[in-house]
UniProtKB/TrEMBL annotation:
The keyword Ribonucleoprotein does not apply. The keyword Transcription regulation applies. PANTHER family: TRANSCRIPTIONAL REGULATOR, GNTR FAMILY, TRANSCRIPTIONAL REGULATORY PROTEIN. This is GntR family transcriptional regulator. Pfam families: FCD, GntR. Coiled coil: none annotated. Keywords: DNA-binding, Transcription, Transcription regulation. CDD domains: WHTH_GntR. Transmembrane segments: none annotated. Residues 20-87 form the HTH gntR-type domain.
Length: 236
């Protein structure tokens, strides 16, 4: 009888972990595995299993899991403990409403501080998006484009919340973008947004961002209600 593969087997740990770096290494390793799908939605992450895997005590594991829960990559359930969180589902509208508020403020703070190098970085991501066919890379580049425009916002706590939202969207796009039939639809939005940022037109930039995110939530909400999405949900 073939044994079902265990998701933790996909994670490789190279040698002993320095005690003072244990929490951050565990957090980043698990975060990467969640984002790239090696740890699928619903995977239970038990502290002792992780402690054994990383060769550490349960304390840094517990701290790393708390950080990932704060980033909404994990949820805690009564019987399973820490579980890899679901992708964007029926609350897509609420999720995007919050993103509009947070990202709009980050953009407002960041635009006056952006340099020509920041603008070129964002433009480079657009050029890559225009030629990219790998859906995993499209999700990653979309996140990097937006963060390039927000990165100079001085409120670092705000930026962490913004990046959490973008990470959630990246995970969703990674596994659903092909089924949604998208990939090339948002570059006009991105170009217009970048041009407004270059012109330091804050109000226009925020308006364009809001329109862009609202288009996104319309497409995602329509997709989540479709039979194709229901079939994929059953497979998670």
């Amino acid at each position: 009888m073939t044994q079902k593969p265990k998701p933790l087997h996909s994670i490789k740990v190279d040698g002993p972990i320095p005690a003072h770096l244990a929490r951050s290494i565990i957090e980043e390793t698990l975060r990467a595995a969640i984002l790239d799908g090696r740890l699928p939605c619903g995977t239970a992450l038990r502290q002792q299993d992780l402690a054994d895997l990383f060769g550490v005590s349960r304390m840094p594991v517990r701290e790393a899991l708390r950080q990932l829960e704060a980033q909404e990559l994990l949820s805690v359930t009564t019987h399973k403990g820490a579980v890899v969180a679901a992708l964007i589902q029926g609350d897509a509208t609420e999720t995007y409403e919050l993103r509009i508020l947070l990202e709009g403020e980050a953009l407002r703070q960041s635009i006056p501080l952006l340099t020509a190098a920041d603008h070129e970085l964002a433009a480079g991501y657009i050029r890559e998006l225009e030629t990219q066919h790998d859906y995993t890379e499209i999700g990653r580049l979309n996140r990097l484009f937006h963060m390039a425009l927000y990165a100079k916002a001085p409120n670092k706590r705000l930026l962490r919340l913004v990046e959490d939202g973008l990470n959630e969207e990246e995970r969703f796009l990674r596994f659903n973008l092909e089924a949604m039939g998208l990939g090339k639809t948002s570059q006009d939005d991105h170009r217009d947004l970048l041009q407004a940022a270059i012109e330091r037109d804050v109000e226009r930039s925020v308006m364009l961002l809001e329109q862009h995110l609202n288009r996104g939530v319309e497409v995602i909400t329509r997709y989540l209600a479709s039979p194709a999405a229901q079939n994929r949900k059953a497979a998670y």
